[in-house]
């Protein structure tokens, strides 16, 4: 038996199929994975993301600490509640994890790291925090529910006191705010609008039940994966890890190499890679022949070499197989994927495939 979130028993009560995910017992689906996927794209669905690790970082030098720890620059965060997506690297430029960090005050930031890397991340962060005298607190007293979809915000604010609803609806994307003892952030992992709400663990079950009453669908990790893949969002352990750097993982935009005097961990390695040019890149693939794309399938990019799919699935929105793949930098707009010994044609495209319910990739029979 793995770790369990405060919503575990409710998931069982609602008939969810439970699987191990990064050491946690989590719902993969409730009824139909495709139905849950469409609920998020067309209306509103919710996910238990309490397995994610919320970490509060406090101290007079916390900003300087995060400028050292992270590849993106928290100097960009000037408004309380503003969030930043970033990678945390090792000295070789490999991705230890990808995370979101929130600026709450000059002495307090909050980070949300991945469940599967929780223990490793906490050990790394604490070891680096010592010289900055930053206090690192794992907030295992909190639960987190992600409510996503075109109707998500309007439904989710009905959980709040009427006086707090306008403030929640006024939040800009990638901004969070404390409202009535909950931290409500306009973030997500599906390519749809919505909130990720951190709340005391005791509030999670009543909140989930109320959202169900409001017509928000219970959704599992299966739908979350197809949604994030359609949105072109990386999954740690698949699309990047300690052995890959941001430049070959489609995450160059999360690296702030300026100002040059900011000596973040992994900077020297990334500077050398950027100077020589990364030999690989992460691209999207749209399968043009009949088949199913999965992770770890061989990709043949003509005479320039081979690569591999990192994530792949059937896209319920496009009704086609899609994937992310790491391929040679010189790969063109057509490749072939080895599926059960057959080389099938795939078109190289730029993710995302779908965003805000709309297909962004042209699909032709």
Write the layout of secondary structure elements.
Elements: H1 8-13, E1 17-21, E2 24-29, H2 33-42, E3 45-48, E4 53-58, H3 62-69, E5 83-89, E6 95-105, E7 108-113, H4 118-129, E8 135-138, E9 142-148, H5 152-156, H6 165-169, E10 176-179, E11 182-185, E12 194-200, H7 204-213, E13 217-218, H8 221-230, H9 267-276, E14 280-287, E15 298-300, E16 306-315, E17 320-328, E18 334-339, E19 342-349, E20 354-355, E21 358-359
Parallel strand pairs: 3-13
Antiparallel strand pairs: 1-2, 3-9, 4-7, 4-8, 5-6, 6-7, 9-12, 10-11, 11-12, 14-17, 14-19, 15-16, 15-18, 16-17, 18-19, 20-21
Helix pairs in contact: 2-8
Keywords:
9 helices, alpha+beta, Gyrase A, domain 2, Elongation Factor Tu (Ef-tu), domain 3, 21 strands, six-stranded antiparallel β-barrel, 365 residues
Describe this protein's structure.
This protein is an alpha+beta fold. Among the domains are: 8-49 and 141-230, 2-Layer Sandwich (Gyrase A, domain 2), CATH 3.30.1360.120; 279-359, Elongation Factor Tu (Ef-tu), domain 3 (Beta Barrel). The chain is built from 9 helices and 21 strands. A hairpin with a 5-residue loop joins strand 15 (298-300) and strand 16. Helix 2 crosses helix 8.
**Cα-to-Cα separation, first versus last residue:** 45 Å
CATH structural fold name of the domain at 8-49 and 141-230: Gyrase A, domain 2
Low-confidence stretches: none
CATH class of the domain at 8-49 and 141-230: Alpha Beta
Report the CATH architecture of the domain at 8-49 and 141-230: 2-Layer Sandwich
Percent in strands: 25-35%
Biggest β-sheet description: 6 strands, mixed
Helix content: 10-25%
């Amino acid at each position: 038996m793995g770790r369990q979130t405060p919503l575990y028993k409710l998931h069982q009560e609602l008939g969810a199929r439970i699987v191990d995910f990064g050491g946690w017992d989590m719902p993969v689906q409730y009824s139909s994975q495709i139905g849950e996927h469409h609920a998020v794209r067309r209306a509103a669905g919710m996910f238990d993301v309490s397995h994610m690790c919320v970490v509060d970082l406090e101290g007079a030098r916390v900003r300087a600490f995060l400028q050292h720890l992270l590849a993106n620059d928290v100097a960009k965060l000037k408004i309380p509640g503003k969030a930043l997506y970033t990678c945390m690297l090792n000295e070789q430029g490999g991705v230890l994890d990808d995370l979101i960090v929130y600026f709450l005050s000059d002495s307090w930031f909050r980070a949300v790291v991945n469940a599967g890397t929780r223990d490793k991340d906490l050990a790394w962060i604490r070891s680096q925090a010592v010289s900055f005298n930053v206090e690192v607190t794992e907030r295992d007293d909190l639960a987190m529910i992600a409510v996503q979809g075109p109707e998500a915000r309007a439904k989710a604010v009905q959980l709040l006191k009427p006086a707090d609803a306008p403030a929640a609806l006024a939040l800009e994307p990638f901004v969070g705010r404390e409202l009535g003892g909950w931290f409500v952030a306009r973030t997500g992992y599906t390519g749809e609008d919505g909130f990720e709400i951190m709340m005391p663990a005791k509030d999670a079950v009543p909140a989930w039940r109320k959202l169900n009453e409001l017509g928000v669908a219970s959704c599992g990790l299966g739908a979350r994966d197809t949604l994030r893949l359609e949105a072109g969002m990386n999954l740690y352990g698949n699309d990047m890890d300690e052995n890959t750097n941001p430049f070959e993982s489609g995450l160059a935009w999360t690296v702030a190499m300026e100002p040059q005097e900011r000596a973040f961990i992994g900077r020297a390695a990334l500077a050398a890679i950027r100077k020589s040019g990364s030999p690989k890149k992460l691209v999207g693939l749209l399968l043009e022949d009949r088949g199913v794309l999965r992770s770890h399938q061989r990709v043949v990019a003509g005479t320039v070499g081979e690569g591999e799919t990192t994530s792949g699935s059937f896209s319920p929105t496009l009704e086609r197989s899609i994937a992310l793949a790491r391929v040679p930098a010189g790969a063109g707009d057509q490749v072939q994927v080895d599926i059960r010994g057959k080389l099938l044609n795939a078109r190289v495209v730029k993710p995302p495939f779908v965003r805000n319910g709309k297909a962004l990739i042209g699909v032709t029979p």
